[in-house]
Design goal:
The complex is a heterodimer of chains A (407) and B (457).
Chain A (H helix, E strand, L loop, with lengths): L18 H6 L6 H12 L7 H8 L6 H5 L6 H16 L3 H11 L1 H17 L2 H6 L1 E2 L2 E2 L18 E2 L7 E6 L1 H7 L1 H13 L2 E4 L9 H5 L7 H11 L6 E4 L2 H17 L5 H9 E3 H6 L2 H11 L6 E5 L2 H6 L4 H6 L4 E2 L15 H4 L1 H17 L4 E4 L2 H8 L9 E3 L1 H7 L2
Parallel strand pairs in A: 4-5, 4-6, 6-7, 8-9, 8-10, 10-11
Antiparallel strand pairs in A: 1-2, 3-5
Chain B lengths: L3 H11 L4 E2 L2 H5 L14 E3 L4 H14 L3 E4 L16 E4 L6 E5 L4 E4 L5 H8 L4 E2 L12 H6 L7 H4 L6 E7 L5 E5 L11 H5 L8 E8 L1 E2 L3 E9 L2 H13 L6 E6 H11 L9 E9 L1 H17 L4 E5 L2 H12 L1 H4 L6 E4 L9 H14 L3 E7 L4 E8 L4 H20 L24 H14 L12
Helix pairs in contact in B: 1-3, 8-13, 13-14
């Protein structure tokens, strides 16, 4: 078992970046406390308890503490292991257990999405407003895809004109089951930039939700299958449109695969190639500006943006790019970089805290006067959208969706 | 264990939500950024002066120790409840009550984070000068209780210089107020100077009126490297001796710089024997003149490289690196002990030499950082407390460092406070009659010794 927590200098820097601590102002809900609690638990000073499990779970797993930690603590690894131990002893919310079960097998997820889709269609509108999932009423939830995105596209998509190179696209569950339009937009942009897009059919859930909730062993199938199908293809990058899937491929895959005792060479190679779609486009920004100009579809929208924690901590925020793009009218929000509280299943487990955080963000987004609010993470989008009312006149979407509409 | 009656009376004040005696929660209030840990019997989160007063009435009736706590980032163990009892945690009493820049003051509750106050002042073109390394996460209440310093205190002075007025709850629960909104105020004893730095042993601060000052027009930062630590230190005393008053002069030795670079990857000068971070502020033209004069002095002291950072982003990067200094040492060894002996600035070269020879003599991993312009040294040693033999050497080395500083007319603590770390060394700098006077004051205001017992006196 890793004993890194003994090297926490207890300096407290993590208190200044932890979104949960900022909302609650209680040491027990801070990364420093979790590291100290894990140490006490490992040393036998604390025994497993429902309260200890709750303290470990009240975390967004956003990774901001790890990014800021001068002592080099890997919070995620420690929290993940301890959560697995505690969930084994104390159990988990029934709904969350269901989620782990669904995600462990891709076809079950497809099936559940189909059922949910049916439910959404038959619920009368007035009931939809009354029924809430966590803190968000059902009518604010996005509709599910009629068909999973990956079943609607070929495995290899050739670009128009000269081929610049090949990329592999890891779509993630959100694009596959909920936001098919993000998948179409990503493909459209990559094709326009001259890239051949490979979308391996047998890719699976990245498994981050499972790892958060103690399903380390259940995740093994998914991880190994993903590594196999994403490898090779002569690809210069593995593209992700979801920052959480991206951070899993970049950080957790090699680490967890080593933990299984398996060879992580391929996982390391993938980790080195993982690129966020916006970062990929940003490196070809001149070409994009040219394409937008040719398209002549530039609009009068006012755009603002929310940086997802996993994007900031594992890649780079898309904000600098949006600022620089001449084709759009960008108005930054004062708190564009702060967490929305939607991390993982946090908004489901701790709706009151997540609501408080998201409401502040929505207020500041409105203040910019924007009518389009961009963000890269599907969970952030759902969490923030839940705090918007139709009369606010703000539409949320992934930046690729907006950019592709300009072509 | 708290008696059932005491517990019921306390819960009646805060409600169940802001009281806890669960072992998991108490564990989180058993530490700060120092080494010693101790479990309290209960933690309470007051949100008003009235609640604090009522809690103190219960505590004094039952003679329960009360230890005030802000963010728990003290580096001397000040908020550790060594005699158990209650921890009063102020993180939820965190309102900025008023900012009045025409009259140059701000009124805050003790749980406001120093950095939050700075962010609230910045749009008005003002700032609150005390800038401890922990400024982005430590509370103003904690800063005042420990009379915190920081790099720019060289030019601007320390926390006590910015406290205009206080509201304090005494051990009995009685609420007193002293000072006013005026910089000039000789109405009565200057009690803010007594309570500031009293580490929660005399009363519990519940509101503060602070002096705020306008931001300077501009600031310029130099990063200077040397191939001898002696020249580095001598440059510091020469600059101050020449009559220039920079905002800050930070000294980092090779061990410190390498620890920073290993953690932060900022392309820092790891080859240099010593590095100085010098900042001047004020009107642009005067900054330029001062930088010229400073550069001459640096060259005379054989500086190897002098890099100017004028861009805000570059300056912020350098200062962020300096502020991370405490945490990065945890990478070297499980435990870190960093003290803050302070000497007159002309003695800086001598003190740096003596710190290095002491650490060398005991063959320990450590070095020196310093807010060198005001003689505030940060000798640090990284070691493993479980290694009894090594830790005995650490303690012996610090004893020598304290003794050497005292011999140079220095003092034990420039900005961290005494807490649990340095009580035993007080005789080095205070004679018996002076120490007894501290006890006389303590007994007069807290006869039952319930306020943070085990510290300072």
């Amino acid at each position: 078992m890793s004993q890194q927590s003994s090297n926490c200098g207890k300096c407290g820097i993590c208190l200044s970046v932890c979104p949960v601590f900022a909302a609650l102002k209680e040491e027990e809900n801070s990364p420093r406390a979790r590291v100290q609690l894990i140490k006490a638990f490992r040393e036998g000073k604390l025994t497993s308890s429902a309260l200890l499990k709750e303290l470990m779970a009240k975390c967004l797993m956003c990774g901001s503490c790890t990014a800021a930690c001068p002592s080099g603590i890997d919070h995620f690894e420690q929290f993940m292991e301890t959560r697995a131990d505690l969930i084994e002893k104390e159990g988990d919310l029934l709904e969350i257990r269901g989620l782990v079960f669904l995600l462990a097998k891709e076809y079950r997820l497809g099936l559940a999405a189909g059922m949910a889709k049916a439910g959404q269609a038959v619920l009368p509108e007035f009931l939809q407003k009354k029924i809430k999932v966590a803190n968000i009423s059902v009518d604010r939830f996005p509709n599910l895809n009629t068909k999973p995105f990956r079943s609607t596209v070929p495995e290899i998509i050739e670009p128009e004109g000269k081929v610049q190179g090949t990329v592999v696209y890891f779509t993630g569950c959100a694009t596959n089951y909920i936001f098919a339009e993000n998948g179409q937009a990503t493909v459209k942009l990559l094709s326009a930039l001259g890239y051949r897009v490979v979308i391996p059919k047998n890719q699976k859930c990245c498994s981050i939700p499972m790892l958060f909730h103690g399903g380390i062993q259940q995740a093994k199938d998914n991880l190994m299958t993903n590594v196999e199908c994403l490898s090779g293809h002569n690809a210069e990058a593995v593209i992700v449109d979801c920052p959480t899937c991206g951070s899993a491929l970049k950080k957790e895959f090699p680490q967890v695969i080593r933990k299984y005792g398996e060879d992580a060479t391929k996982a390391d190679k993938i980790a080195a190639k993982v690129t966020d779609i916006m970062q990929f486009i940003n490196n070809r920004r001149d070409k994009l500006e040219e394409l937008i100009q040719q398209g002549g579809k530039a609009k009068n929208d006012i755009i603002t943006y929310h940086t997802p924690c996993h994007l900031r901590n594992s890649f780079i925020s898309a904000e600098p790019m949006l600022r620089k793009l001449e084709a759009i009218n960008f108005k930054p929000a004062s708190d564009a970089n702060s967490c929305c509280g939607g991390g993982g299943t946090f908004f489901y487990e701790y709706p009151a805290i997540a609501t408080k955080m998201a409401e502040t963000k929505a207020e500041n987004a409105k203040r910019t006067g924007a009518n389009i609010w961009l963000t890269d993470c599907p969970m952030c989008q759902m969490n923030l959208e839940g705090r918007l009312k139709p009369e606010d006149g703000i539409k949320m979407m992934h930046p690729v969706l907006y950019l592709s509409s300009l072509l | 264990m708290l008696s059932k009656t005491a517990k019921e009376q306390l819960i009646a004040i805060t409600g169940k939500d802001r009281f806890s005696d669960a072992v998991e929660i108490l564990t989180c209030y058993s530490y700060d950024s120092f080494l010693e840990e101790a479990m309290p019997e209960a933690v309470l989160f007051p949100v008003s002066t009235k609640e604090v007063s009522e809690i103190l009435q219960v505590a004094s009736a039952h003679k329960i120790p009360v230890t005030a706590r802000g963010a728990g980032t003290s580096v001397c163990g000040a908020p550790i409840a060594v005699n158990q009892g209650i921890v009063l945690c102020f993180t939820k009493m965190d309102k900025i009550i008023e900012i009045n820049t025409p009259d140059r003051y701000a009124i805050v509750q003790p749980g406001v984070i120093n950095g939050e106050l700075q962010r609230a002042l910045a749009p008005e073109g003002f700032f609150f000068p005390p800038d401890p390394g922990s400024m982005n996460f430590s509370t103003i209440g904690g800063n005042v209780a420990l009379n915190a310093g920081g790099p720019r205190c060289l030019k601007y002075g320390v926390t006590v210089d910015y406290v205009l007025s206080m509201e304090v709850v005494l051990a009995s629960g009685e609420v007193i107020r002293f000072g006013s909104r005026n910089i000039k105020d000789v109405t009565g004893y200057k009690l803010s100077a007594l309570f500031c730095g009293s580490e929660g042993t005399l009363g519990i601060i519940t509101e503060l009126t602070l002096r705020v000052v306008p931001c300077p027009e501009t600031a310029q930062t130099l990063m200077v490297t040397f191939d001898e630590l002696d020249n580095t230190a001598k440059s510091v005393s020469d600059i101050i001796g020449s009559g220039i008053l920079p905002v800050a002069i930070e000294l980092v030795d090779k061990v410190g710089m390498n620890a920073l670079e290993n953690a932060l990857h900022q392309d820092l000068p790891t080859e240099a024997a010593g590095t100085l971070l010098i900042e001047v502020d004020g009107i642009k033209e005067s900054c330029e003149r001062e930088i010229e004069k400073i550069t001459d002095i640096l060259k005379k002291n054989h500086a190897v490289s002098i890099i100017k950072a004028t861009e805000e982003a570059d300056r912020n990067r350098l200062w962020a690196a300096r502020r991370a200094a405490y945490g990065v040492f945890a990478k070297i060894a499980p435990d870190i002990l960093s003290e803050d002996v302070t000497v007159p600035v002309s003695k800086v070269p001598e003190m740096v030499r003596s710190i290095n020879s002491t650490i060398g003599k005991y063959k320990l991993k450590g070095g020196v950082l310093a807010h060198a312009g005001d003689g505030n040294m940060h000798p640090f040693i990284c070691a493993d407390r479980n290694d009894k033999e090594e830790w005995a050497k650490v303690e012996a080395a610090f004893k020598e460092i304290f003794t050497d500083a005292a011999a140079l007319h220095g003092t034990l603590s420039g900005e961290h406070g005494i807490g649990l770390a340095k009580t035993q060394f007080l005789p080095l700098v205070m004679d018996e009659a002076s120490r007894k006077f501290l006890t006389t004051i303590k007994r007069a205001v807290d006869p039952d010794n319930i306020l943070n017992p085990g510290k300072l006196v």
